[in-house]
Write a structure and sequence with these properties.
By secondary structure, the protein is of the alpha+beta class. The chain has a single domain, classed as Alpha-Beta Plaits (2-Layer Sandwich). Helices cover about 30% and strands about 35% of the residues. The protein contains two helices and four strands; from the N terminus they run βαββαβ. Strands 2-3-1-4 form a four-stranded antiparallel beta sheet. A hairpin with a 2-residue loop joins strand 2 and strand 3. Helix 1 packs across helix 2. It starts with a strand and ends in a 7-residue tail after the last strand.
Length: about 90
């Protein structure tokens, strides 16, 4: 079942997002299992909302790509963001 992931990185900004994102989504291509990606500023940080084919696909990406990229970029102190994962009832795209 598809899931939506809301990742709120308190203290992060566009520069941090761009640096980490270039490592995990080279060329702007979505990772395996990711169906949608939305990112932008929020009060006090940066928010990334993604839709995944399954929780397992997200966890594989998170553990295998995202967390290592954050560590390598020197942002390991932001690995404890607020991350919410919820089932998707309906996902409609253009």
């Amino acid at each position: 079942m598809a899931v939506v992931v809301v990742n709120e990185l308190h203290g992060a900004d566009q520069q941090i997002y761009d640096e980490v994102n270039s490592r995990v989504m080279p060329g702007g291509e979505l990772p395996d299992g990711c169906q949608a990606h939305i990112a932008g500023p929020m009060e006090g940080g940066w928010r990334v909302i993604t839709v995944w084919e399954s929780t397992e696909k997200f966890n594989t990406f998170r553990e295998g790509s995202l967390l290592p990229a954050m560590q390598e970029s020197g942002y390991g102190d932001r690995i404890e963001p607020s991350v919410g994962v919820q089932d998707v009832y309906r996902f409609i795209t253009a």
